[in-house]
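Researcher: Structure for this, please.
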Amino acid sequence: MSVENIIRERKGTIIDVRSQGEFMGGHVAGSINIPLQEIPERIHEFDNLAQPYVLCCASGGRSGQATHYLSQLGKECYNGGSWMDVNYYQSQAV
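Model: Predicted structure, C-alpha coordinate format:
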Protein backbone atom coordinates (compact mmCIF):
# COMPACT_ATOMS: atom_id res chain seq x y z
CA MET A 1 0.00 0.00 0.00
CA SER A 2 1.32 3.46 -0.86
CA VAL A 3 1.80 6.29 1.63
CA GLU A 4 -0.81 8.29 -0.27
CA ASN A 5 -3.39 5.53 0.14
CA ILE A 6 -2.63 5.08 3.84
CA ILE A 7 -3.21 8.79 4.39
CA ARG A 8 -6.27 9.07 2.16
CA GLU A 9 -7.88 6.04 3.80
CA ARG A 10 -7.01 7.44 7.25
CA LYS A 11 -5.14 4.34 8.36
CA GLY A 12 -2.53 4.46 11.10
CA THR A 13 -1.12 7.59 12.73
CA ILE A 14 0.50 10.69 11.24
CA ILE A 15 3.51 11.72 13.31
CA ASP A 16 5.27 15.03 12.71
CA VAL A 17 8.92 14.83 13.76
CA ARG A 18 9.67 18.55 13.47
CA SER A 19 10.38 20.70 16.52
CA GLN A 20 7.46 21.82 18.66
CA GLY A 21 7.88 25.39 17.36
CA GLU A 22 7.71 24.25 13.74
CA PHE A 23 4.68 22.10 14.52
CA MET A 24 2.89 25.01 16.18
CA GLY A 25 3.49 27.06 13.02
CA GLY A 26 1.35 24.65 11.01
CA HIS A 27 0.72 20.91 10.85
CA VAL A 28 -1.52 18.19 9.47
CA ALA A 29 -4.90 18.07 11.22
CA GLY A 30 -4.98 15.16 13.65
CA SER A 31 -1.22 14.59 13.55
CA ILE A 32 0.85 14.29 16.69
CA ASN A 33 4.21 15.90 17.35
CA ILE A 34 7.15 13.82 18.53
CA PRO A 35 10.35 15.67 17.56
CA LEU A 36 13.04 13.48 15.99
CA GLN A 37 15.52 13.95 18.83
CA GLU A 38 12.88 12.93 21.41
CA ILE A 39 11.86 9.65 19.76
CA PRO A 40 14.27 7.38 21.70
CA GLU A 41 13.12 8.70 25.09
CA ARG A 42 9.45 8.69 24.06
CA ILE A 43 9.44 5.31 22.29
CA HIS A 44 6.92 3.92 24.79
CA GLU A 45 4.32 6.38 23.43
CA PHE A 46 4.38 4.60 20.08
CA ASP A 47 2.89 1.47 21.64
CA ASN A 48 -0.39 3.36 22.08
CA LEU A 49 -0.53 4.64 18.49
CA ALA A 50 -2.15 2.83 15.57
CA GLN A 51 0.25 1.50 12.97
CA PRO A 52 1.30 2.10 10.30
CA TYR A 53 2.97 5.36 11.22
CA VAL A 54 3.29 8.01 8.52
CA LEU A 55 6.17 10.26 9.50
CA CYS A 56 6.54 13.78 8.16
CA CYS A 57 8.70 16.86 8.67
CA ALA A 58 9.63 19.91 6.59
CA SER A 59 11.26 18.17 3.62
CA GLY A 60 11.46 14.44 4.33
CA GLY A 61 14.97 14.28 5.79
CA ARG A 62 14.13 14.00 9.47
CA SER A 63 11.11 11.81 8.79
CA GLY A 64 13.42 9.52 6.78
CA GLN A 65 15.74 9.20 9.77
CA ALA A 66 12.79 8.49 12.07
CA THR A 67 11.40 5.90 9.63
CA HIS A 68 14.75 4.10 9.55
CA TYR A 69 15.06 4.10 13.35
CA LEU A 70 11.49 2.92 14.01
CA SER A 71 11.57 0.24 11.31
CA GLN A 72 14.68 -1.22 12.97
CA LEU A 73 12.55 -1.58 16.12
CA GLY A 74 9.95 -3.55 14.19
CA LYS A 75 7.43 -0.71 13.77
CA GLU A 76 5.48 -0.45 10.52
CA CYS A 77 6.21 3.06 9.31
CA TYR A 78 6.56 5.11 6.15
CA ASN A 79 8.28 8.35 5.25
CA GLY A 80 5.52 10.72 4.21
CA GLY A 81 8.02 13.46 3.37
CA SER A 82 6.91 17.06 3.76
CA TRP A 83 4.01 17.71 6.13
CA MET A 84 2.49 19.84 3.38
CA ASP A 85 2.40 16.82 1.04
CA VAL A 86 0.82 14.70 3.77
CA ASN A 87 -1.69 17.48 4.36
CA TYR A 88 -2.57 17.49 0.66
CA TYR A 89 -3.08 13.70 0.58
CA GLN A 90 -5.28 13.94 3.66
CA SER A 91 -7.40 16.61 1.96
CA GLN A 92 -8.06 14.06 -0.80
CA ALA A 93 -9.40 11.50 1.72
CA VAL A 94 -12.36 9.36 0.76
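Researcher: Any notable elements?
Model: The CA atoms of residues 2 and 32 lie 21 Å apart. The chain is about 35% helix and 20% strand.
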